[in-house]
Amino acid sequence: MASHRRPKQPSRARVTVLTTAAAAAVAISSQAANAAPSEKPSKDEVKAKVDKLYEEAEQATEKYNGAKEKQEKLQKEISTIQDNVARGQEDLNELRDSMGLAAASQYRTGSIDSSIQLFLSSDPDDYLDKASTMDQLSAQQVESLKKVQEKQRELAQQRAEAAEKLKDLSSTRTELGEKKKQVQGKLAEAQKLLNSLTAAEKAALAAQEDRASRSAADRVDLGNVGSASGRAQAAFQAAQSQLGKPYVYGATGTASYDCSGLTSWAYAQAGVGIPRTSQAQANAGTHLSMSELKVGDLVIFYGDLHHVGLYAGNGQVLHAPRSGTVVRYESINNMPFQFGVRI
Q1: What pLDDT sits at residue 35?
Q2: How far apart are the C-alpha atoms of 296 and 268, rounded to whole Å?
């Protein structure tokens, strides 16, 4: 006999949960249908982001340059110390050999001097400290022993100095690697943004930069070059010969340059050595206001002094701007001017 019991009804709680879930699903579907697709950044927005990344990359580049310069300096200092230690050890060996020869001669005659015996012991310093035996030494022997002591102290000091510099060199190399990664990371991020542009947008940006560069070149007053000092004039003319060379971080020429690489190279052609980094170049001469600038003076930009160029006259600078560009002229007002430097 069939059962006539009524089917079990879903609980009120279950109905509420199902109803709520269905409503939520409908709402989400509605939002998804009505949501506007995320807009691709415009060419100008991409350019602004890329320019910011390039600026950050250049900040890291100058720190990289500073660490690299320090590394090279430490390597030279360590090499010099090691050479001095080697020569010092040879001198010490010669002093000991001469004392040993004297001892051998006295031994053969059967009359080895007590002073020589003490010198050949493990602690000649102790011997010299004993005033009672000093009068047993000849003046020449006293002088020889003092030279040995002095050379031993000098070698110990130089070895300790070399050890400290080697530790400093190790930490500098670590810093160098970190700065290099920072630069490469910023450049890769910028390139990724540029790759998101269409071919037409890339061409438009390139044309925009080319127009700005040609406009700046047209405004350069080459007649002002004669007003510069001989060294500044020679440096500026050297930099002019590098127009069109690409910017590469850490580069000092002549195939490519970064900003301070160009200025340090240019002044080197004028027979003047200036520091490697823009921050150090900022303190390499007399500070100038914008109105005091002459052709060939260094021009320092940004609050942290991470960019440098050469003044080209008529409100223009000659510089290596950033990755993706070449050595070119540009308006001095395109970047935050800090001060000029006359070498």
Answers
A1: 44
A2: 13
